[in-house]
């Protein structure tokens, strides 16, 4: 039995719809998921600024644009996300820019907490880490590959952090955000092209 069904695709958001959803929830002092605490609202507000900045300033590599235009098959990029997730805010805008380069890619976003049956089929080390991108063949919804929750060098920072009990979660978050700022989406682009067998 398929985990991801046409019903999931139908209820998923496009990138702009997802951004509008977050804005409308924040206007009501709410966010996605069930935790509407001030901390989660603050994360979500910060992520809106992050996504807007990345939308505005990130330019895809020429190779990325060229390779994506070469696609011959149709895919759905289904991303599990939540408004309060910092890694989602860093990666989703770039994935959206990549999907925009090819009429053969449809980017769809599902809220993780409303779709536990999907995220539980794509756990990271036993956890529901997001964002999680699942590449589906459009006509069959068969899974081609999946990626997430963050580029390999950023994931390595988490592995190192877990060996340092004296280091706070806030320190780790600062390190990761600094890495994202320096990398500017280049590693994400290379990893996705590699998964699509489009690199080199």
Write structural notes for this entry.
The chain has 200 residues and is of the alpha+beta class. The chain is 50% helix and 12% strand.
Backbone CA Rg:
16 Å
- Corresponding CATH superfamily: Glutaredoxin
Strand order of the largest sheet: 2-1-3-4
In the CATH hierarchy, what is the architecture at level 2? 3-Layer(aba) Sandwich
CATH class: Alpha Beta
Q: How many distinct domains?
A: 1
Describe this protein with a few key phrases.
200 residues, 12% strand, 9 helices, Glutaredoxin, alpha+beta
Short description:
This protein is an alpha+beta fold and 200 residues long.
Furnish the topology, listing elements before pairings.
Elements (H helix, E strand, L loop, with lengths): L5 H6 L3 H13 L10 H20 L4 H7 L6 E7 L4 H15 L4 E7 L4 H4 L12 E6 L5 E5 L4 H10 L7 H15 L2 H10 L5
Parallel strand pairs: 1-2
Antiparallel strand pairs: 1-3, 3-4
Helix pairs in contact: 2-3, 3-5, 7-8
